[in-house]
Amino acid sequence: MTRITRRALLGGALAAPAFIQASAHAQPSTVRLALLTPLSGPFARQGELERLGAVLAVEDINRQGGIKALGGARLELSIADAGANVEQVTAAAQRLVADRGLVAGLGAWASSFTLAATEVTERARLPWITLSWADSITERGFHYVIATSPPSSSIIPAALRPLLAMAERAAGKKPATIACINDDTAVNQANMKPLREGGFARLGLNTVMDENFSVPLSDAAPLIQRLRRSRPDLVLLGTTATSDSRLLLQTLTEFGLGQGKVPVIAPSANWGTPEMLRNMGATYLEGVIGVAGNWTSKQQAALNQTLLQRAGEPWLIQDTLSNYGHVLLVADALERAGRADRDALMQALLATDTTEGPAKLFLGERLRFEPNGRRANPVPAVYQWKNGRPLTVLPEADAEAELSWPRPG
Do 153-292+382-398 and 30-150+299-378 fall under one CATH topology? Predict the structure, then answer.
């Protein structure tokens, strides 16, 4: 296999559409970015994946000579633990914004964490970039927030529309009925709200079952019995706890519905983690379809392989890819802003419109933003577990594998 050097990797990935020459006055020797992500508590693994992406990107930018428009200034990360709840996130954000030397911030991971953190960072006029999904992140009238993922209200419908068309081509029949099993957590209920309020109907899907359960789930058999009686064309599973996910998949298999016999859609990047494979095994996961804000792409196979080797992970997921891309986005905006100033940087971030540089780390061809900071026309990632790996199946231009869908009868 041809070895891709880091210089070759970043040569294209860091190319900005335009550079502003460094001004004659003295430029900072370092530009400092905050990273706020859970590094302790139940979400520490996801936080570590976010940290990994940001650290790798900073290393690459600095090896390539730093921020050219700032005289080669090096990027530096100030990393803070978001902890396990919004109170800890708020306290950590308050400590971060006390540092006036920070130019921008990244992360928080969970939407509830990001909402809490940005209440603090907005008052400090600190530009903040996140992969969190919640619509409200960019609907509060804030001026210093950038969100790169599709919002909760549209990510599942936007994923289902082409998925249903692909399923019709694969099986010769368009899926017409859906069964939903969700835990009662805020995130899954928020994901379901637009679907219940006409989203499924607009997709041509009739809901034959819609059940919620309290975490943790002690017995999945009654739910799966009802599911089997409803005979859906596909199932949507909204779970937060890995133990609940495992119990539901095991019970589906016991009832003869698992391993792709009835397509299962799981709207979460967490369903595609290496930990999910270790906890469940490839047999139970086979055929499960996940939805995320970002995933790997066949168009960036060389880039992904190089990052993968350095990351030491079996594969890359949304958390690492997006945070690598977020650092590239800040670097690109700094080059165009020409100074390490929060307001100038935020203006440059909002003015981003590129198919190069940071756009290479996200699905879809173009990276640009609406005035409220949400990515314009964001493309959701759809992946499917195949032989122990979660491979991108949509968008088709980025697909690493074809969708597997059972034929009726």
Answer: yes
Beta carbons within 10 angstroms of residue 312's beta carbon:
7
Ordered DSSP codes for 101-122: TEEEEEE--SHHHHHHHHHHHH
- Amino acid 280 reads M
SS3 286: coil
List pLDDT tens digits, range 253-298.
Answer: 999 998 889 999 999 998 999 999 999 999 999 999 999 999 999 9
Question: Please, what CATH class does the domain formed by 153-292+382-398 belong to?
Answer: alpha beta
Q: In the CATH scheme, what is the homologous superfamily, with its name and number, of domain 30-150+299-378? A: Response regulator (3.40.50.2300)
Q: Of 395, 408, 337, nearest to 363 (Cα)?
A: 395
Rounded Cα distance between 307 and 53, Å, is 9
Query: For residue 310, with 0-12 CB atoms within 10 Å meaning exposed, 13-18 middle and 19 or more buried, which class applies?
Result: middle
Rounded distance between C-alpha atoms, residue 169 and residue 375, angstroms = 30
Classify 80 as helix, strand or coil.
strand
Domain borders along the chain are 30-150+299-378, 153-292+382-398
208/190 Cα distance (integer angstroms): 20
Name every residue whose Cβ is closer than 8 Å to that of residue 81 and which is 6 or more positions away in sequence.
Answer: 37, 38, 39, 40, 47, 88, 92
With DSSP H G I counted as helix, E B as strand and the rest as coil, what are the percentages for the chain, rounded to 5? 45, 20, 35
Q: Could you tell me if 181 and 238 are in contact, meaning their C-beta atoms sit under 8 angstroms apart?
A: yes
Which amino acid, residue 202?
R
- Could you tell me how far CA 204 lies from the centroid of its own chain? 27
- Return the closest-CA partner of residue 182 out of 157, 214, 152, 155: 214
User: What pLDDT digit, counting tens, does each position of 343-392 carry?
Assistant: 999 999 999 999 999 999 999 989 999 999 999 999 999 999 999 999 99
Cβ-in-10-Å burial (0-12, 13-18, 19+) of 93 comes to buried
Cα–Cα distance, 15 to 208 (Å, whole number): 50
Phi then psi dihedrals of residue 141, to 5 deg:
75, 15
Stretches where the chain sits below pLDDT 50 are 1-25
CA atoms within 13 A on the CB side of 330: 38
Q: How is the beta sheet containing 74-81 ordered, strand by strand?
A: 74-81, 30-37, 102-107, 128-130, 145-147
Report angle CA 290, 293, 297 to the nearest 5 degrees: 80
Question: Which H/E stretch holds residue 281?
Answer: none
